[in-house]
Every structure is written in C-alpha cells, then in structure tokens.
Amino acid sequence: MFFYDPLYMLISIVGLILVFIPQMLIKSVYSKFAKVRVTNNMTGADVAKSILQRAEINDVDVVPTTGALSDHYDPTKKVIRLSEDIFYGNSVSSFGIAAHEVGHAMQDNQGYLPMKIRAGIFPAVQTGQMLGPILLMAGLGLRAFMGMGEFTTLIALTGIILYASAVLFHIVTLPVEFDASMRAVKVLSGGGYLVDKREIAGAQQVLAAAALTYVAAALYALIELLYWVWIFFGRRQD
C-alpha cells in the first residue's frame, strides 16, 4: 500500500529539505542585514507609514506584533502587522520587510488580481490542505481492502480536488509575493529611503531569500499533488 511507499517517503524527505533550507537562508540573511543600520533615522514603522501616505492609502494601520518574522498584511482588517524588531528597527532588514508588507496593502488598494484570487480560494485551502490527503487515502484504502467500488473512487477524487486547491493557493501566492517585493525595492530606492547602493542590494537579498520560502512551499505542494494524482489513477487500474 501507498502508506509505506518508498517514493512517498522520498518525497517527504525532499519536502523537509525544501522547507528547511529556505527557512535557514532567510533567517541568516535577515540576521545579517538586521545589523546594518540605514543612514536615516527612520524605523520600519516610519517607513511603512510614510509609503502608505505617499500612496494615498489612508485606511490601513501599522501596528507591532509579537514573534520573529511574523510580519504580514491583513486585508480583512486593513492592518499591517510588523514584528517588533521590524516595527522599531532601523536596519536594511527592517526597511525591506516593512516596505514589502506595504506592497501588499498597495496591491489590495489597487485590486491586484492574483491577490483577489488568493483571497477567494483561501477558505477552500484551509480545508483542502488538511482534509484532502485524508480523503484520498481513505478512499483508496477502502477500495483496496473492502472493494466498495466507485463510491470510494469519488471519495479519493474529492480529496485530490481539495488538495489541488491548496496547491493553487501556493502557486498564486508566488506572483503576489514577487510583485510586493518589486514594489518594495522600487519605492525604497525611488523614494529616498535607501540611498546607498549597498543598502538597496541588501534589501533585495532579504526579499529574495524570503521569496525562496514561497517557491519551496509551492514546489513541494505541487510534487505531492502529482504523487497523489499518480497514485489515484494507478490504483483505479488495479
């Protein structure tokens, strides 16, 4: 049975590596440039508020939150939450991450299509990522051991569809994150927040390392989905 499939074990190991390496990279790059102070005296919160003001976005608040690298934009409450090191920090990392989160607020304000798609499928993702593989394994298992026919096939197919929604979420997330980072670099350099070429290059490195975590998550999810599809169609022929 696929529960003990060596291929699935290999995929799981590859997945752990895909997740672990980018996480270590972003922590390393973030720590490096968190020590590099910016030539002006602004904090990450100051930068975020200033960019919002320049973009004439007046309905978004910037607040501190707990946890390392917990920075995010909440479109439902119109709030940019910055971890305390970013909110109060005066570093290349602080500026880069703060501007990136403002980039998401700008996307929301302008009706950026990939962001709309991601928000639209998010409810299905919450269910699909957890329930999808369970339904798939249950459907195939019942079919193999109890011979319950097309009903179990339907259960398994439902699991694949649910998990596919989670994979779609990861894929749609990529342009959302890349675009926010491009906006961040553009506004930081063009707006005079970062004037030294080394500071701008440092911000680009921080955001590139962060982007790799999303690429890795999407790749792992896609590989796992392809595995389940292969198992599903292979089992139907058994």
How far is the N terminus from the C terminus?
A: 12 Å
* Helix-strand sequence: HHEEEHHHHH
Largest sheet: 3 strands, mixed
Could you say which structural class the secondary elements and strand pairing correspond to?
mainly alpha
What is the mean pLDDT? Answer: 88
Q: What is the domain tally?
A: 1
| Individual helix count | 7
Low-pLDDT regions: none
Percent of residues in β-strands: 5-15%
Report on this model:
The protein is mainly alpha-helical. It has one domain (2-236). The protein has helices spanning 6-34, 44-54, 84-88, 92-110, 113-146, 150-190, 197-236; strands at residues 61-65, 72-74, 79-83. It has a 3-stranded mixed β-sheet. Strand 2 (72-74) and strand 3 form a beta hairpin. Helix 2 packs parallel to helix 4 (92-110), helix 4 (92-110) crosses helix 6 and helix 4 (92-110) packs across helix 7 (197-236). 37% of the residues are buried. The mean pLDDT is 88.
Give a brief outline of the structure.
The protein is mostly helical and 238 residues long. The chain is 75% helix and 5% strand.
Labels describing this entry:
238 residues; 75% helix; 3 strands; mainly alpha; 3-stranded mixed β-sheet
Layout of helices and strands:
Blueprint: H1 6-34, H2 44-54, E1 61-65, E2 72-74, E3 79-83, H3 84-88, H4 92-110, H5 113-146, H6 150-190, H7 197-236
Parallel strand pairs: 1-3
Antiparallel strand pairs: 2-3
